[in-house]
Input
Amino acid sequence: MATPRSHAAQLFGRRVRTARVALGVSQEDIAQLANMHVTNYGRVERGEANSELHTIVRLSTALGVDPGELLAGLSGDGMLPDREHAYSVADFIAAKRAQEST
Output
């Protein structure tokens, strides 16, 4: 079994699974409604997939939830692999000012 891509992907997948289970439907049902292969859907629930925007919107539509509910609180702070550090615009501006002052 593959490992989760990141803590963010794992949390997103857990939210998708929780919404599906609350509805009492199978992975196959949601995959079909979201126009995805059930294998890929399973990867999302396990946090092994790095879902693109269209997939997130299709999943939220199939689950009857707002996409924001599935993404709430996800950030780059400790949720992404080390090699994918997310920089904010504040980080960028601070680095740029520091470089200009030298």
